[in-house]
Amino acid sequence: MSIWSGRRFDNAFKNYSEIEEYDENGNRHIKVVYYGTYYQANLSDSSRKLHKALFAVLILLGLGLVITASAIDIPSNKVVYVTIFTALIVIVSLAILGFAYYYITSPTEMDHRHFVFNHKVFPRLTLTASILSTALCLSVLSSLIITHVSPSGLFFLSFVLSLFGAICFFSVFLIEIKTVYNMRNATEYDDNLAD
To answer: Which of 35, 66, 102, 149 has the most neighbouring CB atoms within 10 Å?
Structure first.
């Protein structure tokens, strides 16, 4: 099966239509027109910019905190399941960075695809990173209990950094989930279909 067919491809181009046009020389041109719903966050322009900047800071801070916590040289960070959580967080964080770039560069009025990526997928990834960071905190704590090693200042530093990383990711999730979006039909104001 081709990657260019099927449900995912159809969903990516949902609410788009192709219109054939001919110029004065008889050359055919295909014009792609969006006829679905546009979504716009119910924020002023300055609030929207602040929103995006806050997301960028929280995501980079969360990623930096979790990676720093994982890099601290303590026995609990060398346990297999702690390393697995760290690897999963890094993988999810790379996906978050991609979606964060997509979120930050998305237009003010988003089509259906942008809206789904920004308001559905992106918060789920940040929630996943928050859960994994919390699991990292708990696994570091459990490895300390299992190995019967007395906690050091570096252990507490690793635990606190992971916890604050989880809070950063969870904050992005909460802010985006609570953001209200206004909707308008593309055909209400779009003259492209009338041509």
So the answer is: 66
